[in-house]
């Protein structure tokens, strides 16, 4: 009887690639098949959720021994050679980078413009939210970005733990005591789900995520100085869940312009990059755990606090 090939789906660069392999093919062979379709060299491929007995399989391992279901989705990270060359060489015509500090002058004008409020209202009506866990009574709301906030999606690594920001689970466990938690990423929903699974967030017993929001919940705004930018308006959440508002909501993102529609409710977290170098020294989430606790226990209106200076915040104790 002729051997039957099976397939996996490789998710990379926002796209999915169907990869066929045979019963005797090894991980090395699989990498070469992936290379043919993606042009990412085998040595640059990081197959994050491919495991054998809890460890990353050796290239000599036969794929069939992993007992993958047909259509199993593999999360891959890796750069094309031309992209690496661009990073390593200084471009002659380097474009102007949008500076978050420069953008602040536009904030008040942007958040109150009717055209953008109408876009928010449209998202409230048309965007469907899939609840993962129910909201709880008298909780605040924490909205979290993923890339460079909780997860370094570009560093070299072979496991999710190596890319995860230090103290992530401790941070979420502490926050969950006072806040319902929402994840909002400027990527697609499937990618969000895979990342949360990879990091162990979606299955953790100490906390629960209320729901995910993806790029389709964002709106575009036009700033004369920089052109069109996609942003994350908290009004989409507030319009659907009126128990939450500017008074009890805070958003963490490593890019300030993402909360340009709600500047008084956004906190720009330090970006977590080069995970392989910074895992041992990054304590941002530990410090922010205390800040969230202080806000929840002592602040009646989150929008009245300057979150930019969160490290200097001294709560006024309630009597």
TrEMBL record:
It catalyses: O-phospho-L-threonyl-[protein] + H2O = L-threonyl-[protein] + phosphate; O-phospho-L-seryl-[protein] + H2O = L-seryl-[protein] + phosphate. One of its GO terms (molecular function) is metal ion binding. Pfam families: NIF, ubiquitin. Its EC number is 3.1.3.16. Its cofactor is Mg(2+). Its main location: nucleus. PROSITE patterns: FCP1, UBIQUITIN_2. One of its GO terms (cellular component) is nucleus. InterPro entries: FCP1_dom (IPR004274), HAD-like_sf (IPR036412), HAD-SF_hydro_IIID (IPR011943), HAD_sf (IPR023214), Ubiquitin-like_dom (IPR000626), Ubiquitin-like_domsf (IPR029071), UBLCP1 (IPR051658). Residues 135-295 form the FCP1 homology domain. It is found in: Nucleus. Residues 103-130 form a coiled coil. Residues 2-77 form the Ubiquitin-like domain. Keywords: Coiled coil, Hydrolase, Magnesium, Metal-binding, Nucleus, Protein phosphatase. The keyword Magnesium applies. PANTHER family: UBIQUITIN-LIKE DOMAIN-CONTAINING CTD PHOSPHATASE 1. This is Ubiquitin-like domain-containing CTD phosphatase 1.
